[in-house]
DNA sequence: AAGTGGTCTAGACCACTAG
DNA sequence: TAGTGGTCTAGACCACTTC
């Protein structure tokens, strides 16, 4: 542990009045900064479901005293979790666990935009239609992306996304059937919002980050049919691995985008 | 101003012993948090060239006392500038203004990667060949992207990038000739590293962020010639606006990427 | 008025770098 | 050994939200 700074160790020894919640004092950990340990403790509470999406955490002073750290240290841990899109602060109200609602999804994970669009304009929510659903065995590509074994059971789901009524994106996603036990086509067909919301609400899995790899290809027969394109049209194919805590892969998705009137956008180094 | 917290205002009134450097006490600014004002002051010192790329800033305690703020407030300002890729901290050594060396460029702005490459592997630096250079008048597209007038003078530069000896990317960039007065073809042909390094060292302009818009198109005649492709091959076209402080556009670049063996990669929400 | 997060200060000690 | 950034604490007050 960090040891004897400003009487920290002494404080710890005295603390026998068990604090509220699961906020027990941080265990010793050599070399690791205290605020990192606090961060891990908070992540555990969220991963375990003790604090669910959209829940309000206890106040900063309550958490700090519960974990027996100073409020500055607690704030530094929360700062990082806010930057990592795990928590959201709302002044005067509290600190909340992130929730994958539609606007959040749009902002963080949906990067298809109409070309020549003035920036002031709102982008519309994409309308999603589920076009296929199957239970199958993982291909080598899927197994590698999801970190599972070749032939392990997966769900494969095909979705068509329309923007302003026109089909623009064809998504095919694969998720482990072991992680998402008992998933049904109905859940995909009937959901009113992003699948990340479904993962989070029905399975407690929060998608935090993703890796995209984009390339240009000729539209396949299937893609042409689903997006209404002429054979051989150049389309953008994005391979995405979506990840949760600890960079554990959750979903592998291949999106085919008709880029005749839309772009795949990306910000290099976001503004603060 | 923030007013009478812990005797802050009183401290200010006393301070007449002019501190070293241009680190004069922060002027009053209603409502704006002090650390934001500190941040602006630091940005100004960097923009003005008082601290050049790769320079070491004065120590945190020196800056804090110079600006008459607490060290915690100064650190918060520096924290943000580090996140925005303006400053770099090196424990034990000091805080430095960023320098666009090759490895930094690669990490932050060059997002083309070989497919099926094991992650542990280093990517090689792209070898750049300047294939064209001209002084011209801005098209509507260039003018809009660069925030200049239609017909204003620009430099247009074409570069071919090779990876492992094979041509993969064809870049065409446009920059304002008013901003980059006196630029010569020689500078582009002879430089040994990224153009962002050139902008920074020769013109004091630091590229901090960029917006990319990617789409799939059929390779044009020119592109086929330069990248050695068959006519009609689908290629990825990335339109980039590179920006400096205050999101001022500096460069507009169209990159055409042969994605037969490479991908354009993008991270959604970076890890901390 | 009470409770929350946001800002600011002051000062201590730790970890790393370099002469 | 001296100087730098990194961590941690303690406590004050501000701004916002809700009742």
What does this structure look like?
The structure is a homodimer of 272-residue chains. Chain A is of the alpha+beta class and 272 residues long. In chain A, 29% of the residues lie in helices and 29% in strands. Chain A has a six-stranded antiparallel β-sheet with strand order 4-5-6-9-8-7. In chain A, strand 8 and strand 9 form a beta hairpin. The longest helix of chain A has 14 residues, at 34-47. Chain A starts with 7 loop residues before the first helix and ends with a strand. Residues 1-21 of chain A have low confidence and may be disordered. Chain A binds chain B through residues 80, 83-85, 108-109, 111, 113, 115, 208-218, 234-236, 239, 247, 257, 259, 262-272, and chain B through 80, 83-85, 108-109, 111, 113, 115, 208-218, 234-236, 239, 247, 257, 259, 262-272. The structure holds a DNA duplex (19 and 19 nucleotides).
